[in-house]
Each structure stands twice: as C-alpha cells, then as structure tokens.
C-alpha cells in the first residue's frame, strides 16, 4: 500500500474527534458509545476494522430500539450491514 510509505495520510469520512476516540480505544480498550456519537463511531470503526467497537455500537443501538425509532435504526443497520441489529429492528417494524 502506498500509505505505508507516506509521511502523511488522509482518512476521509472520519472527523478528528471520532478518530481521537478510536485511537484512545486502541490504547485503553475502553470507549463510551452514546446517542450523540454512535452514528459516527460505527462507520469509522468499520472503516478502521475495529470490530469490537463496531459490535459495541450495534449492541448499543439494539438496546435503544423502540417502536418510535425502529425504522431509522433499521435503515442505519442496513446501510452498515449490521445483520443482527437489522433483524432486531425488523421485529419492531
């Protein structure tokens, strides 16, 4: 990969705050998933192949499922291929 020899690389679609949280996770194995950050953490974790964070995000969304938000969560799960979350959201729909 050309990135391995580059002095500087650009990670598109990941904001600085999210990247900082994910770097902290790499060092500490701890991350706080909230309603405010789950929609940016999940795709960034997928991009960076941090599968534990990705699963934590899916688990968080599953715990937040409610008839009033199931369609939005279902669409989000579908876009980000969160199969278990998609099935749970379909149960509400």
UniProtKB/TrEMBL annotation:
- Superkingdom, natural source: Eukaryota
Q: May I ask which residue range the UniProt record assigns to the signal sequence? A: none
SUPFAM superfamilies reported in the protein's UniProt record = POZ domain
* Occurrences of domain BTB (ranges): 2-64
What are its GO cellular component terms?
Answer: cytosol
Swiss-Prot/TrEMBL keywords: Kelch repeat, Repeat
One GO BP annotation of this record: protein K48-linked ubiquitination
This one is known as BTB domain-containing protein
Q: What is the lineage of its organism?
A: Eukaryota, Metazoa, Chordata, Craniata, Vertebrata
């Amino acid at each position: 990969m050309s990135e391995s020899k580059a002095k500087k690389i650009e990670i598109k679609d990941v904001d600085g705050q999210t990247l900082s949280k994910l770097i902290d996770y790499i060092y500490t194995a701890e991350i706080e998933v909230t309603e405010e950050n789950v929609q940016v953490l999940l795709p960034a974790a997928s991009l960076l192949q941090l599968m534990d964070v990705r699963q934590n995000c899916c688990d968080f969304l599953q715990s937040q499922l409610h008839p009033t938000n199931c369609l939005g969560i279902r669409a989000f799960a579908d876009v980000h291929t969160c199969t278990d979350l998609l099935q749970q959201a379909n149960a509400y729909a």
